[in-house]
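We recall that each integer encodes one residue's backbone shape. We quote one record:
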Amino acid sequence: MDHWWTTTRRSFQTLLIFLLLPALVSAQQVAPAPAKLSAAEIDLADRVKVDSIRNYVTALSADDMQGRGTAQPGGDKAAQYIADQFARLKLTPQGDKGSYFQSVKFRELTWAPETTLKIGDEEYKLGPDFVPVPLYGGDKTRAGDLVFVAYGLQARQPERDDLTGVDLSGKIAVVMNGPPPGISKKSWDSSGVKQQILGSLFQRDVSGIILIQNAQEEHPYAELADYLSRRQIERADGPGMPGFIPPIYMVSDATAEKLFTKSGRTFAQAKTNAEGTTFKPYGLKQSAKLVLKGKTTKGNGNNVAALLEGSDQKLREEAIVFTAHYDAFGTAANGRVYPGAADNGLGVAEMLAVAEAFTSAPARPKRSIIFLAVTGEEYGGLGSEYWVGNPTWNIKRVAADLNLDGMGTEVYGPVKTIVGFGAEHSSLGPMLIDVVAANNLLIIPDPMPDEKAFYRSDHYMFV
């Protein structure tokens, strides 16, 4: 899931090179060049078995896998299961010290129950009422008068200054989670203005920041709160967030209403007022207290890597890498398990089925093939980022990465439509067109360009 605070924290995203859509998607066929699969290619494709994929998904999403959480016991169990499949297929270990495993050290952040929000004399509940944005720079207790600054925007186009004439030192800034009317979400997301707004507020020495919804978000508060209440993972060797960052809370609409009860305006009126370019910041005539407490622990996860050596004396020095992330969101503190059958038990199962096909075929491919099941994708492609930075194969001799990141769309019926996300950036593009033509399929443009899918999975770390 792509949220702007995740992007702020790290340039996070990634994606599939091919997303397979069900036949019900309406499409206009792109005229491909005539193409035909060889007998060996047809034989290899026939060796990819649906039953194998089903069995792998069932095993990976079973209760005893506990959601395959990064740096959790369920994740370790899933990694061992994948390594066992590689061993069964007699693939060569391609991890650390002759094993299938490449160790990746992580740092885990969870919100402590002491994390609270108090407005006036009323205290609010973590999760249903508010949730911290995970730009965590250490435990803090901050209090101050509430000041509404609309979008916190200072811009020439459109011309507006939401911070004009206001002293925010020691205050808690109440900010609309943009974009404001007149600015497209695409422009808002790509401009970096959200990071600039936070930076400007930090420089003004705010005591804290409260983000409120403007009813234009793609995801409702309940969905965001569910995501942000989960544990957060980052690489242990990462820099972490600087200590000067104040608490930043996102609140529900019901909580937002309470912020304005003494201001002389309702929440709805405040939102309307914020749309005007002549907006001036004003105090909300009450104070708030933000107590932010996080618990950080260290953990370990593993990428799982195996090699099928190529048959050509020269070309086997190059490798095609198949990637698929095996992590899901694991088990939450409240005991909820996220099985992750589609995202991404399915992708790992497809990769294992492809490995089965290659190892059972009468002839080996000319290039070597690396099968790489990575961890930590749900937190920003951390496992693939680590492998690319610490490759177990010469990274300059990687000819291509084919990433399998399932969203479940493959399971609804025969695949007849394909979107080649990022194909225009790759020399694989013409090959995709040939394969599509040979299978009488359709290629359509990205139907969801605002999702920026090309940047949102493990292949992008190779890019």
